[in-house]
Each structure stands twice: as structure tokens, then as C-alpha cells.
Amino acid sequence: MKGISLAIALLIAGLLAACGSIAQPAPMTAQPTATVSAMPTGEAQPAADGAQGNPALGRQLFTTFQPRVGTTCTACHRVDSDERLVGPGLLHVGERAATRSAGMNAATYLHTSIVSPSAFVVDGYPDIMPKNWSDAFTEAQLNDLVAFLLSLSTADEVASAETSDDH
Hints:
Layout: H1 2-19, H2 55-63, H3 93-97, H4 106-115, H5 133-136, H6 139-150, H7 155-162
């Protein structure tokens, strides 16, 4: 008897759904978990190791949610330490980057590491960095980001990144 009642209930529910009498749930849309803000433009300034970019704009890019990638750099990288968060800590990353690949300066190494993260994977870390950062940033923004990373050997830049409201 229970089987017949269940079958009838399912049949009625199916008929009502076909007639549109049962409200269908609205489709879910993904919402970013962080505030997305427009990136300001600024004049490129020379940085260490040949990078052309604005470190202040790069800091803002580093701490701002990037919808095309679905995350922010701060989700995986620290700037106040070389200790691991998810990815390597980035304090003094310019100094390390300058020694990673013979014949390649730090700016080129860092730029390549962002746009082609599988090119240089630090020992002991999985190759999990998103591969679409070049879709999120223009070439000028990449230069700003590299200039910021190269500046992480100065206490002032690290302190300003840590106290930023953009996290």
C-alpha cells in the first residue's frame, strides 16, 4: 500500500511540475567573496632589476580580488615573511628571484612566474598556482605587480602592504 501511495504522490508531483504549479528555484549565481574594485592607472616608474612599474599600484593589485582568477594573491602568499602560507612567502623575493635562473634578472623571473607559473615551481611546493593571471592583468599591471614584489625587501613597503585596507 505504501508503494502505491508513493507512486501516486510522485505522479501528482510530476503533473503539477509539468503544469508550472510548483515553483522552481531560481538558478544560483556565484558571488565573489571579496570586494572588487577598479584598478587605478598610474605612470610607470623604474624599479630594481629593470622592472618598469608602479609598486604602489602593484601592491593594490596584489591585495585585490581578481574575478577572472577567482582569488587574490594574498590568499596564498605572505609579504611579511618568507614562510609558507599556501605558496612561498615573498619577503625578499627579488633577491631570491635574481639567483633562480642563470641569465635571467629578477623582474623577468617574477613576470614569468606569474604568467607561466609552471615554468618555475619552488621545490617542495605543488604546481597549484592559477594559470590565468595574464587574463586578469594587463601588461602594465603585471609590471606594477613585479615592481611591488621587487620592493618587498624594504620594511616600508612590507608595512604598508600589511596595514592596507585592501586585504
